[in-house]
Amino acid sequence: MNIVHVAAHQDDEAHSLGTLLKYRNQGGHRIHLICTTNGDKGMSFSPEIPLAEAAKIRNREMREVAAALGARYSCLGASDEFLYDTEEMRMKLIDALRECEADLIFTHWPRDYNLDHNTTSTLVFQCSMNSIIASMQSAHPALKVTPKVFYWDVGDGFGFEGTHFVELDEETIREKARIIRLHKSQMEVMRKIGPDFADMAVDRARLTGARVGVPYAEAFRPCLASRRTPLANMLP
Ligand SMILES: [Zn+2]
Q1: What is the span of the domain harbouring residue 121?
Q2: For residue 50, is it within any domain?
Q3: How far is CA 179 from CA 67, 153, 184, 207, 225, in A?
Q4: Is 157 contained in some domain?
Q5: Is 0.70 topped by the overall pTM?
Q6: Over the stretch 108-150, which tens digit does the pLDDT of each residue have?
Q7: Within a domain: residue 232?
Q8: pLDDT, mean of residues 186-207
Q9: Ligand 1 centre and the CA of 92: distance in Å?
Q10: Neighbouring-strand partners of residue 33
Q11: 134 alpha carbon – ligand 1 mean position (Å)
């Protein structure tokens, strides 16, 4: 399968990284990471760092994450914290999905704590459907089949209730934490406002796992719109 992870920011993959690692370990899949924004506001408490430099750092960190997953990374280049649903962004995402020959997409839950996340989810909802419409021409040919969509777990407070669970073992969770730490700049930002970012992801996976009687898990919900609904067995 061609698995495409569409996130707003470089580090949003923390919610589904264990599942991506399972796909990697299964073999036979191609993993593509797409970020809609360039992450240039990510040095949240270091305004002295120029935005272009911040974008460069986050691009470098994301490429390290992609390398660890054996994935390909591309960025659609919108201004961080100012992503809008525009004709330009839709066409960029449609073409990116076609270039990846997307079978299955993971993305943000539609109602989240950051509008870049919500807009990315909206873009995926529309562009997954549009990716087969040949009259919407882009650099790559239209897909033959509409890609399916899973939403990852946004956490409490947003009406997300996981329905599909992916079990993670000790080794996978350790690898997940190691890869999250490759986002050195974001680890530092998070340290200023809360607990360790990687430890937090491990704790979350432990709580999710406890619900279904395994050491660790990640939770998802399928998109229920016609032609985009995935079968449960598309999860690893
Ligand atoms: Zn984000």
Answers
A1: 2-224
A2: yes
A3: 10, 18, 10, 20, 32
A4: yes
A5: yes
A6: 999 999 999 999 999 999 999 999 999 999 999 999 999 999 9
A7: no
A8: 92
A9: 19
A10: 5, 73
A11: 31
